[in-house]
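Lab manual, section 2.4: Encoding a predicted structure.

Procedure: take the sequence of the chain (511 residues), apply the prediction step described in section 2.3, and record the output as structure tokens. A sample record is shown.
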Amino acid sequence: MNAIGMVSGKLWTGFLGPRIGLCNYALRACHTNTQIVEEVAKLLDLKAQLGTDDGKQMFVLKTPKGTRDYNPKQMAIRESVFNTIISCFKRHGAETIDTPVFELKETLTGKYGEDSKLIYDLKDQGGELLSLRYDLTVPFARYLAMNKISNIKRYHIAKVYRRDNPAMTKGRYREFYQCDFDIAGQYDSMIPDAECIKVVHEILAELQLGDFHIKVNDRRILDGMFAVCGVPDDKFRAICSTVDKLDKASWEEVKNEMVGEKGLAPEAADRIGEYVRMHGGFDLAEKLLQDPQLSQNKHALEGLTDMKDLFKYLELFKVTDKVIFDLSLARGLDYYTGVIYEAVLIQPQNVHPSEELVSVGSVAGGGRYDGLVGMFDPKGRKVPCVGVSVGIERVFSILEQKAEASEEKIRTTETQVLVASAQKNLLEERLKLTSELWDAGIKAEVLYKKNPKLLSQFQHCEETGIPLVAIIGEQELKEGVVKLRNVATREEVDVSRVTLVEEIKKRSIQS
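Recorded output:
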């Protein structure tokens, strides 16, 4: 008998357990190594079907690639950021909408250029081909066309999905939130566009992420630049997608892709290189208007004229110190038709020199897309739109790192007061007082024990950050008062039961 077969049979019988020991006969019958391999594969398959000896199926506990869970501390940070952003959106007069997390596949097809390959397609569900939304802009355009809306200022905060190569430390996921602010309607040139940039400036300044720049450009200027540089019309979008990589790759790498992969003439690429190195502001727009070639191109002329107006309005909004006219900014999405912009973080503030900085790059982006709604409207009716999207996950990456580096305690609840008792057999009185506080709009807690120790109740407040303790005992019940304790200072005062709610509210405002 084959020695290998005999040894393998004994080993696998011990490994797979008594339930499949009878399968050992298969190995004894093997006469070649190939047969042994085949039989082992069958046994492994049988092992997987049977599960472990305790009858439980074996599986790995993990989140899918490009996704993550968020613990209470992380969620507290997220909630704070969302509140800041929503407050800004509302300050600018925006109203909110919601759309389905998945759309008809044909709704999303052909809107994202080379990034279309990152769309998640779903299996056929009863005759409809569906895809998970890639962003919130295309669903918004579909919403406008479907409901025949020609004028709205809206914000939308929701999850989107991309089959991207995730980089978790840089805040790049396959499932993530976007915070969008868009203005739809026919208005005078550049006024809504300037407000969108102002919104980005306000949010980033208020979140105190660190120094940032908002880069601006215009698709019409890009198209004019490509035309005067000798780029064929049918290569505009492909070359635009390549130029968009300049924030992550060197000029030489970008040029090699243009020439080697996209088939652009080397001299055309060199001329593009001269333009995309230009940065400035209002002065650069004026300079390019004097360019003998660009000034003769209709699209570039329109874009440069609007760019001058944009910087005039931004000057009035007092944000030009952070805004840069950057000819290398391209933004690869196909639906942009005019001004485009992108906010880039320089470096986080207040980070200790010995700590590694989080490299997050772009944290917001957007632009004008006047033709997108018309793509969905049966009559081709266009609704001019401009908007911005805040890449919230990248913002979280920075704030989470700052929170970990800081010794400051992050509260995960908003509880104002814990109702405690100093003696035994007062559970009913504690529950009664807690209910009174809830009914009065006070955020209150009570420990779920009949007779908790007073020290344990104090410790719970210190661990969770609850600032006040309302203590009741037999004496307090007789006198109609509650002993209110400040957890931080340990100061205690007797407060009338009648005025307790008012006192808690007053102290909560002061803290």
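Check your result against the sample. Residues 340 and 367 are 4 Å apart (CA to CA).
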